[in-house]
Amino acid sequence: MALYSEKVMDHFRNPRNVGEIPDADGVGEVGNARCGDIMKIYLKIKDGIIEDVKFNTFGCGSAIASSSMATELIKGKPLSEALTLTNKAVAEALDGLPAHKMHCSVLAEEAIRAAIKDYYERHGIAYDKSQFPEPDEDKEIHEEN
Ligand code: FES
């Protein structure tokens, strides 16, 4: 069996929503200290809906595929829904990631969360801090695919 699903290969080769949004309403940047990969997510938000989303990822193929899939999953969705997106859901939408690559999908979940938090802070919107736990580098690293 191939190590990577066709969906992972597709999103790696033809990533959706790559780029920057110069007048973004929220920007989130996270990194993984172990592998050194970095992901940046830009959000354009109107009336609580994610109207547009772009990403820049300096990282491995799984991180690029995860960013691409995650942006597709939250585009056009309410912030409340984007906040519930888990790395596991991103990996499942990609038809799975190898266990040792699950941490790449964690970056996508964390970058989206960081961008939403940035949006709330920039716009002086009160938010529930418990929705934004500190990133945990070891999260899901041992998750089965
Ligand atoms: Fe670093 Fe994939 S190896 S995010």
UniProtKB/TrEMBL annotation:
Listed name of the protein: Fe-S cluster assembly scaffold protein NifU
Domain of life: Bacteria
InterPro entries referenced in this protein's UniProt entry, alphabetically: NIF_FeS_clus_asmbl_NifU-like (IPR017787), NIF_FeS_clus_asmbl_NifU_N (IPR002871)
Every NIF system FeS cluster assembly NifU N-terminal domain range: 4-123
Gene3D superfamilies: 3.90.1010.10
UniProt GO BP: iron-sulfur cluster assembly
GO terms, molecular function: iron ion binding; iron-sulfur cluster binding
